[in-house]
Backbone:
């Protein structure tokens, strides 16, 4: 019964979305207030209806209602409660319902917090937002209905993929979706602005926090996925340039570009048409990501669910929205007059450079991701584009970003002097080069990757703090520290996020350059050396878990005669799913991770054992956490609080340069 | 569903990738073998190199790579040998020739183009910026208001 109500609520939501798409839009065209005002209750009721629908599906999973086909295929009565709940979005249909729920939630936010917007503009934003949800309601109801019943309910379900029964992966999709869908807000604002032919500082003020929120969710989502791959897949890889990973990385890069260019719109009323284009592209890449993941067109290790018919539907959604928005853009972009002028050396120019670099980085990922498809369809060649290509083609642009970031972040608005901006950075540059050289001297015969990573990391992190320090002005040290605590949160957010990027760059370079690996057959009781550690395979035992059989080893790690860690790597087989998994044992540390994996028993006795020493591994995700934290601090800045912002900007006046 | 399971199996157990018994005794040669394997794609997996994959064919390829290295082939010769038998599909980094040049060079070209356009736009904007002071219309309106 609850299931049917959930299904019905979804259909009702669809109808309301159709109304919200048409009526407020027409009202805005004609200037009819009453028609425009329809959007607000419609947006709110959509949230209630889809929320109820989602709750109904969750209820079916929680109570293990196997008369529902989706529950039967993706759940099991003996599964832990946490994974019964996360199983709701651990499949195609449920994850699309989650997507829709987040979409209508963002629509409602625009309605609830959009009091300061012009009524006609707000009506158009909500109409565009509703149009997107209409497409996804239709997608769910016609191709991926989660509420289908089975005529003969089976006794028990088929269980969720054991790989997905993991906390890291359980919360990876919701964060990614919050990011993907959060970018729909920027898209709706861009399209509404194009229809009205008007972009001003208030527009930038609105778009920036929402893009920032979407970006920070994407950051967390990507980091969770990468962390999961690191500990679960068994050899400590953290990024594979897999199409599905790329699908989330492209919107992340474009969103990063967008939130920087929105600053220019907000503060200087320049770069308007470029920012609009970025907003369209950012959501376009989100839709493209959904297409790649949901259609399985570029089959990848991650493609857990795929179905070509659904792919065509999403492709149509992608075509209509991005194609339509770009057409509108082509027709209207020239109406976006920039009023703020700036010279070639200025913060604005630096942000343009940031945008060019980020956009080109996203383009590298895009080309590499679709090239095999293109080559097969157009050139008739089957070829692969993998990690070596991306490493070679992507890294230079990101190194360039890291190089220009500290200087660009400090150069003055409007018309700056490079010399003045660079002044506080000289000590940082010297320190970076010195530490890089030190790293080079300490290592023996390895690549330049490590030292370059050290130098870049120090440069970016140091630059971020030099920037913050320079904002305290002049005067005695005590006073400057006092001012440091009173700086706007936006400044702190910028510093923390930029420092996070530096930390991640350093972590990736250091781990890749200096990791040590040892693969060998070890006898029980045998001790051998790996790097600075003595490794002993104490013993190996067979065991049983709740729903798997396990082979568990005890491995002792010693350093300088003292025990550092006792690790228990496992090899599991899930008999129901007939699936083996590896459970690496990791001793996490600030300076290094010890990563141990147990393999097969050998014919002539002994076990295959892999030991990895991964220096600074946790810095990769630590940096990502810092980036997200920086975003969060920035969001809490008073200047960004919505409503306050919109009202204030009316009085901002333009001062043309020169 | 079976295919999906197969993919997942391949994904789940990379710990059966490089086996101790496959490894060469000469560390320098083994290092070269690892390097080469990381650039070759497992023919039956998705987006996995033969170094990471546990598929039987990957094991064959790893052994083949080592065999050729022991026979004294250079790195490039080993790669050519494998590509001759398994096609360019196994190269994780597409060769920089023919149509693939588009793949390799489109981003750098786009970057330079983007820089050029941005430069021109910024310079142009700086020049086209309205001069300080009032336009003729504004002057006229001012005179009108002040009653001159």
Residues:
């Amino acid at each position: 019964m609850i299931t049917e109500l959930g299904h019905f609520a979804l259909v009702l939501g669809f109808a309301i979305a159709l109304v919200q798409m048409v009526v407020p839009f027409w009202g805005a065209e004609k200037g009819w207030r009453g028609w425009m005002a329809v959007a607000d209750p419609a947006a709110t009721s959509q949230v209630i209806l889809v929320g109820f629908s989602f709750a109904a599906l969750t209820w079916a999973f929680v109570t293990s209602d196997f008369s529902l086909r989706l529950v039967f295929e993706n759940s099991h009565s003996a599964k832990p409660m946490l994974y019964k709940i996360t199983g709701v979005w651990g499949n195609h249909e449920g994850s699309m319902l989650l997507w829709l729920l987040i979409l209508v939630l963002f629509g409602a936010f625009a309605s609830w917090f959009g009091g300061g917007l012009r009524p006609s503009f707000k009506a158009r934003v909500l109409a565009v937002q509703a149009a997107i949800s209409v497409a996804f309601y239709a997608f769910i109801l016609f191709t991926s209905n989660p509420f289908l019943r089975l005529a003969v309910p089976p006794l028990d379900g088929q269980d969720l993929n054991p790989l997905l029964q993991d906390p890291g992966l359980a919360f990876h999709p919701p964060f990614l979706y919050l990011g993907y869908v959060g970018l729909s807000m920027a898209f709706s604002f861009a399209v509404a602005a194009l229809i009205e032919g008007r972009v001003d500082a208030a527009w930038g003020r609105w778009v920036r926090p929402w893009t920032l929120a979407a970006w920070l969710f994407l950051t967390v989502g990507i980091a969770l996925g990468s962390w999961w791959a690191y500990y679960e897949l068994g050899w400590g890889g953290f990024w594979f340039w897999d199409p599905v990973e790329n699908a989330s990385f492209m919107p992340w890069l474009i969103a990063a570009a967008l939130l920087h260019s929105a600053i220019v719109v907000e503060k200087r009323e320049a770069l308007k048409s470029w920012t609009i284009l970025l907003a369209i592209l950012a959501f376009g890449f989100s839709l493209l990501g959904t297409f790649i993941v949901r259609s399985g067109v570029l089959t990848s290790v991650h493609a857990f669910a795929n179905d070509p018919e659904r792919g065509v539907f999403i492709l149509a959604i992608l075509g209509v929205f991005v194609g339509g928005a770009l057409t509108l853009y082509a027709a209207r972009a020239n109406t976006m007059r920039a009023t703020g002028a700036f010279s070639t050396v200025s913060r604005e120019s630096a942000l343009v450079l940031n945008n060019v670099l980020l956009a080109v980085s996203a383009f590298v990922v895009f080309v590499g991701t679709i090239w095999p498809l293109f080559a097969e369809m157009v050139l008739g060649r089957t070829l692969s584009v993998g990690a070596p290509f991306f490493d070679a083609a992507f890294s230079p642009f990101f190194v360039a970003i890291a190089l220009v970031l500290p200087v660009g972040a400090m150069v003055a608005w409007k018309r700056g002097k490079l010399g003045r901006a660079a002044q506080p950075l000289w000590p940082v540059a010297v320190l970076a080069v010195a530490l890089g050289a030190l790293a080079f001297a300490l290592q023996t015969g390895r690549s330049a990757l490590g030292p370059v990573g050290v130098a870049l990391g120090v440069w970016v992190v140091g630059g971020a703090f030099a920037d913050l320090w320079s904002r305290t002005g002049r005067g005695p040290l005590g006073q400057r520290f006092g001012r440091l605590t009173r700086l706007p949160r936006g400044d702190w957010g910028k510093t923390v996020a930029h420092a996070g990027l530096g930390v991640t760059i350093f972590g990736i370079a250091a781990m890749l350059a200096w990791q040590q690996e040892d693969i060998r057959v070890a006898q029980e009781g045998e001790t051998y050396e790996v790097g600075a550690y003595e490794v002993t395979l104490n013993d190996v035992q067979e065991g049983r878990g709740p729903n798997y059989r396990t082979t568990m080893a005890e491995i002792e790690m010693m350093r300088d005669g003292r025990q550092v860690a006792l690790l228990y790597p496992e090899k599991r087989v899930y008999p129901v799913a007939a699936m083996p998994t590896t459970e690496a044992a990791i001793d996490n540390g600030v300076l290094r991770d010890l990563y141990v994996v147990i393999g097969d028993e050998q014919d002539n006795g002994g076990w295959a054992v892999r030991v990895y020493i991964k220096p600074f591994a946790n810095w990769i995700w630590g940096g990502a956490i810092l980036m997200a934290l920086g975003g969060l601090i920035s969001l809490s800045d008073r200047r960004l609080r919505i409503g306050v912002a919109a009202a204030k900007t009316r009085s901002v006046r333009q001062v043309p340069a020169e | 569903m079976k295919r999906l399971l197969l993919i997942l199996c391949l994904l789940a157990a990379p710990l059966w990738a490089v086996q101790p018994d496959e490894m060469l005794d000469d560390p320098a040669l083994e290092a070269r073998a690892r390097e080469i394997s990381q650039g070759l794609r497992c023919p039956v997996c998705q987006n996995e190199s033969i170094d990471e994959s546990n598929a039987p064919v990957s094991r064959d390829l790893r052994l083949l790579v080592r065999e050729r290295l022991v026979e004294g082939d250079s790195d490039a010769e080993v790669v050519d040998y494998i590509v001759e038998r398994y096609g360019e599909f196994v190269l994780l980094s597409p060769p920089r020739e023919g149509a693939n040049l588009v793949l390799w060079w489109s981003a750098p070209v786009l970057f330079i183009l983007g820089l050029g356009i941005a430069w021109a736009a910024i310079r142009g904007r700086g020049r086209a910026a309205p001069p300080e002071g009032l336009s003729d219309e504004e002057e006229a309106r001012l005179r009108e208001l002040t009653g001159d």
